[in-house]
Write a structure and sequence with these properties.
Layout lengths: L4 H6 L6 H11 L5 E5 L6 H15 L3 E6 L2 H14 L5 E4 L8 H4 L20 E6 H7 L8 E7 L6 H4 L6 E8 L26 H8 L5 E3 L2 E2 L4 H11 L6 E2 L8 E3 L7 H10 L4 E6 L11 H16 L2 E3 L3 E2 L5 E4 L3 H13 L8 E3 L1 H4 L4 E7 L10 H4 L1 H7 L3 E10 L1 H8 L14 H18 L3 E3 L6
Parallel strand pairs: 1-6, 1-7, 2-4, 2-5, 3-4, 5-6, 8-9, 11-17, 11-18, 14-15, 14-16, 16-17
Antiparallel strand pairs: 10-12, 12-13
Length: 460
Amino acid sequence: MAMSSSTIVSTLPDAGAVSVRTVERVLREGCPLLNVESPPGAGKTALVEALLVSAVGVAGLRAAVIAPHAEQTYGLLRRVVSHYGPLPLALLQSAQRELPPDLLDDQRIPRPVSEPRRLPGVGPLALVATADKLLFESAVPELGKFDLLICDEAYQLTYSKLAPLLRLTKQTVLVGDPGQLPTLVTIPVHRFETAPHRVHWAAPRELKRCLPDLPTERLPVTRRLPQDTVAFIQQPFYPNLPFSSAVYGEDCRLQFAVRGNNSVIDRALDLIAAGCSIVCLLLPGENAPAGIVDYELSEVAAEVIARFLARQPIWQGRMPLDANHVGYADAHVASGEQTAQMLRSRGVPTDKTQVLTPEIWQGLERPFMAVKHPLSGLNRLSTFDLEPGRFCVMLTRHQLGCVIVGRESIGERLAQHQHTCGERPFGAENSEWAGWQAHYVLWERLREEARLIKLSNTYY
């Protein structure tokens, strides 16, 4: 390609100074290790895409991009072939895994390679793989060395998976969202909490702990979330990552073709249309059912979504929204399934209005979201419940507005919570305390801004 690396980045609609500077630091200055932190919807994948194309198509390097999940690698391939011309692409994945139908039908997408010996041995190369696959093949000599390793969604990658891959490359770039859920670790990790290397931590987090002067770039804006949402989530979930919203005016204007019926739920939806992008509906806290399934809350959540659709929402004054533009997030599968049943009983198709856990919602977005507060109805708040990344993901999927449903007792539970420091190894970080702080700060902000709206049990 004749284009410079700076020109490659500037061709993307959401490119900015940080994206250009990142490419320059890697390709011109030769920075050996660079960490890029991003708020939700800031263009992480676009930056990864531009860096890959610049490295391979402009500089003629051999580069590898890894992501936590196969679907993320497929998404990157779709974007690269859509935005740019021919590139020496290669997809490394298991022979047992099949490509999605749209990729199978796309002649621009190379057939997957399951063994490193089948990769081109010389010349520019853009290799795409999951972190697990590249790690599995990292000991095979035929894999060779890379000039550049790019880690997409790096905060979902543990240091234990990244560390062995560093020997394969001259330069490494980590791109990720520090507010997301950490990757799932299925073994006990207490023994590692005070070890010299916290191998179970997210790779960027551990590298920052070990290397206080780690070169870091920060994407400064979100192109998904309204500024109203940023004002609520930044302090509790992104205290070390200042950012603002690039969404304003028509980009976040919601209208309803059908007037509300003056119910509490419709008044909450009208607040969303008026620019209050996060609103919380609360049922009484007393007599809340034990366990994670709350029939009444599921009914409220289903009614919120049904009323949103029944009022014929319109985005930007011209784009009608339907069931494909709505989502529901619940921390528990059983509770989410109860809500899904309620939605289907109201004629809302759950193959379109998806009901998913935060772990699956990561990386996705919808114009409108409803979420169940992860602390709702609980008598004792565990570390799992208080995990800040879980609620952060739930509150950052929307482009227009989000309605939280929960119980009034949440504030009382937060105020009464007592966490026992003795349950963690001496010297380990107190993640439960950090989670409690995030939840408490957000709850107080909702209360101060009059976003906590009480429902009676006869809300409809």
